[in-house]
Specification:
single chain; alpha+beta; bacterial flagellum biogenesis; cilium; about 350 residues; transport; transmembrane; cell membrane; 13 helices
């Protein structure tokens, strides 16, 4: 029974029930794993491209018309030589590039804009790295028959159905006019069918963009679900960010030891050590060239105080007993900092006494 309880606790701790932490979200984003809907790109691309065709359709028609006119009025009379064929090829390619450049530019802007709207600015090479796990046939089969794959199938069927219904409706609504185009001029027929095509494209793009809103919400939900963390993951991350308590304790202890060693090295140069006499010890040094007030070069209580007094005694630094002053200096002063103004008079009297004894003045 005990083992069953432990197993249940283990599985409960390992269950992904917690929302991803900001650090986990940032790490996941740096790996290129972000919520994104391809339908947003498709719908935005269709709207932009067909909108561009609607606005630039007249210019594109004139450019293509001039190209065909030149082909049948000028190129057809040229002799069939290598130079002439190369010239025709180059000029035709340049004309086609001029015709397609605006549309391709709009498509590129649409693709970049739709990605920026969803993902923002993100540069990472993680998705391009070679990973043998992606070639695992078992995992590949699991992906094919997974719930996500079923959702993608339903989405694809829905998109095909929606686009099919839209295009059929537009064609059916204009079927009578289509039949009459056989009696119209070529130019009129081209304008009509061009407008119908643009209308179908814009309507399909708008429909896909509306569907993509639902898809993006689902992709975001699925992404957040996939990056959820267990309670153990959250604790481990917190521990890694703040450091292991034992390691932090050892680091602090080492820092205290280094600080104490550095502090002890200043005691031999002190002018006086003010003591409690047993619990506190404050080492004072006055150097008028560095500071207008005396400095506390070392201070300690109990064991550290005893060490300060031992070092002072070994280096012939005078010690003066003043219980209240030692306690107050320990509480109110910082190492390597001038003493507070309230202690000036008392410390000055002690320094004067020490200087007289050492015949410094």
């Amino acid at each position: 029974m005990r083992w069953i309880t432990l197993d249940l606790q283990y599985f409960a701790a390992d269950e992904k029930t917690e929302e991803a932490t900001p650090k986990k979200q940032k790490d996941t984003r740096n790996k290129g794993q972000v919520p994104k809907s391809q339908d947003v790109n498709t719908g935005f691309l269709l709207l932009m491209v067909f909108g561009g065709l609607y606005l630039l359709g007249g210019q594109l028609k004139n450019a293509m018309k001039n190209m065909y006119s030149k082909s049948f009025q000028e190129y057809i009379h040229w002799e069939l030589t290598t130079d002439n064929v190369a010239t025709v090829f180059l000029e035709a390619t340049a004309e086609m590039a001029m015709v397609m450049a605006p549309i391709m530019g709009i498509a590129m802007i649409a693709g970049i804009s739709s990605n920026l709207l969803q993902v923002g600015i993100l540069f990472t090479g993680e998705p391009l790295k070679f990973d043998l796990k992606k070639l695992d046939p078992i995992k590949g089969a699991k992906r094919i028959f997974s719930a996500r794959a079923l959702v993608e199938l339903v989405k694809s069927l829905l998109k095909i159905s929606v686009v099919g219904v839209i295009t059929f409706t537009i064609i059916w609504a204009n079927k009578d006019q289509m039949m009459l185009m056989s009696q119209k001029s070529v130019e009129v027929a081209l304008v009509f069918f061009g407008n119908i095509t643009i209308l179908m494209g814009l309507a399909s793009g708008l429909a896909l963009l509306l569907l993509s809103t639902i898809d993006y919400v689902y992709q975001r939900y699925d992404h957040e679900k996939n990056i959820r963390m267990s309670k153990k993951d959250v604790k481990d991350e917190h521990k890694n960010m703040e450091g292991d308590p034992q390691i932090k304790s050892k680091i602090k202890e080492k820092q205290r030891q280094m600080s104490a060693a550095r502090m002890m090295s200043e005691v031999p140069d002190a002018d006086v050590v003010i003591t409690n006499p047993t619990h506190f010890a404050i080492a004072i040094k006055y150097n008028e060239e560095k500071s207008d007030a005396p400095l506390v070069v070392a201070k300690g209580v109990d064991f550290i105080a005893q060490k300060i007094k031992e070092v002072a005694k070994a280096n012939d630094v005078m010690m003066v007993e003043n219980r209240s002053l030692a306690r107050a200096l320990y509480q109110e002063s910082e190492i390597d900092q001038p003493i507070d103004e309230q202690f000036f008079k008392a410390v000055a009297e002690i320094l004067a006494y020490v200087y007289r004894l050492e015949k410094k003045v």
